[in-house]
C-alpha cells in the first residue's frame, strides 16, 4: 500500500507543478506496470490453445 500511496502523492505533486502545464484530459494508470504487461483487453486470449481455436472456428461454421 505504501508504494501506491507514494506513487499517487508523486503524481499529484507533479500535476500541481508548473512542469505539467501541457497535461490535460489524461487517464493515468498507477498499477506497477501491469497494464503494460497485459497491454489490452483481449491479451488473455493468447492463453487459448490452438486446438480450442480450431473447435471454435468449426462451431461458428468457418470453412478452412
Write a short abstract of this structure.
This protein is mainly α and 64 residues long. The chain has three helices and no strands. It has helices at residues 2-16, 34-38, 50-59.
The largest sheet is: none
User: What are the segments in which pLDDT stays under 50 over at least 5 consecutive residues?
Assistant: none
Strand share of the residues? under 5%
- The coarse silhouette is elongated
Helix/sheet category: mainly alpha
Number of strands: 0
Total of domains: 1
Count of alpha and pi helical runs: 3
Distance between the termini: 51 Å
Q: Determine Rg (CA atoms, Å).
A: 21 Å
The percent of residues in helical segments reads 40-55%
Could you report the average pLDDT, rounded to the nearest whole number?
80
N to C succession of SSEs:
HHH
Offer a few descriptive terms.
mainly alpha, single chain, 64 residues, 3 helices
Amino acid at each position: 500500500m505504501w508504494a501506491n500511496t507514494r506513487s499517487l502523492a508523486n503524481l499529484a505533486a507533479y500535476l500541481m507543478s508548473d512542469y505539467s502545464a501541457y497535461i490535460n484530459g489524461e487517464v493515468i494508470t498507477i498499477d506497477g506496470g501491469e497494464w503494460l504487461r497485459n497491454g489490452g483487453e483481449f491479451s488473455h486470449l493468447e492463453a487459448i490453445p490452438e486446438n480450442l481455436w480450431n473447435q471454435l472456428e468449426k462451431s461458428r461454421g468457418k470453412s478452412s
